[in-house]
Amino acid sequence: MNHRVVITGLGCVHAAGVGNGAFFEAMEAMRCPVQPLPESFRRHHPFRTGHYIPLPEIDLERQGIRTNLERVMQPEDRMCLLAAKFALEDARVELRERQGGWDAQLPHGTGIFLGTGFTGLQTAFEGYLSHLKVQRTPQSRHSFNRMMIPMLMTNSPAAWSAILFGIRGPVHTLNAACASGTLAIGEAYDKIRFGVMPAALCGGVENLQDSSGAVLRGFDQLGVCTRSRDGFPKPFSDERTGFLFGEGGACMLLLEERQAAIDRGARIYAELTGYGENNDAHSIAQLAPDGFQVQKLARLVSGGRDVQLVNAHGTGTTENDRIESELMAELWPEEDNRPWVQASKALLGHTFGASGAFEIALCAHGLLHGSWHGTPSGQKMPGVRLLEETRQLSIQRVLSLSLGFGGHNLALMLERHEN
Question: d(Cα 393, Cα 412) in Å, to the nearest integer?
């Protein structure tokens, strides 16, 4: 028996806005927190890109999370905990205080599925230099952090979320590069759909911050970062040159079995009605030029259903946008009947493992409230019905696409739910 799965809670932590109100208001106002690269990044090496989006600044205590363990947490741990708290509160889940955290009043067997790409890079760099007794500055010391290994563990953000919120079901950390957040939500959807668990906290988190800009330089050397003068990546335009690098953020969603959500009187954002994945089997860092597997996946997940909007991967790289635009023409040959296209990375930057989760949260928010953010762009590519300004639209069904390094292609279908 297949169960129906709905989204009942969202939690967003990003430089554009910490908390759902600030985040969605910034997206609808089309405010992108882009900044010029710090001079410290350019001190020793040239960059082709000139802009980025920094990691959000957060204060756990100010947000109601008080723990004496914060000193052994990474930024990704803190962001994930805050996003999880926002999502649980948004879903009106009771949080019963206990020593060291809360017990979230969720059904027995509820799990966590978290997507991430990297973790603990700054801590790793500092630990390595400390191990070699290399002083980066006259003020730096050689103390080696004895908690380095727990801090570097990729599963730490998910594990900390389980610990602080008392979630004792299965806890998984998943990686599909840029599609990690989508993978985590898709896997949670499957577990609930097939009756393996009643609910799941799921999403994505990323922390690509380092004090020297070495991680950004790595992406820049691949030639995938935007070279536009103002930093805007201008997806689906003739002026696109690459994506806007985002140091990271966190987005968590609460998924529940539909009838159980209705029975407890939950507000439902949207229903998940399709999920699929495949692989290009072509390159570790490039899309297959024919886009065949992406088209195959989109066709499978849409299943011939009427789709009114596609939240595209939309990075602003030359090949990504070409492949996705050709996909639109292939699936919807009549230009007048093509769905709207929304590219959230134009405002969010590319937050790697967290990006898919942010995009699905924006889709869920749009389906409930009818508000869909615009996509800053340039001279549009032909055949793409790009949503250039924020609009109120009556959308019934939306397809969200995520395409990750290593050839990972994922898609999720969301539909409006009549509350």
Answer: 20
CATH placement of domain 272-415 = 3.40.47.10
Give 3-state DSSP helix, strand, coil % of the chain, rounded to 5: 35, 25, 45
What end-to-end distance do the CA atoms of the chain give, in Å? 23
Q: Rounded distance, CA 268 to CA 9, Å?
A: 8
Question: How many whole angstroms separate alpha carbon 330 and alpha carbon 313?
Answer: 17
CB atoms within 10 A of CB 212: 16
- 171-199 tens-digit pLDDT: 999 999 999 999 999 999 999 999 999 99
Element holding 277 (H helix, E strand): strand 270-279
CA angle 409/410/414 to nearest 5° reads 155
Cβ contact 188:113 at 8 Å: yes
Amino acid 120: pLDDT: 83
Domain(s) labelled CATH 3.40.47.10 in the chain stretch across: 5-263, 272-415
Integer-rounded Cα Rg, in Å, for the chain is 21
H-state helical runs in 211-354: 214-221, 258-263, 292-302, 318-331, 345-348
- State the pTM of this model: 0.96
Q: What is the dihedral of CA 356, 357, 360, 361, to 10 degrees?
A: -150
**Does the domain made of 5-263 have the CATH classification 3.40.47.10?**
yes
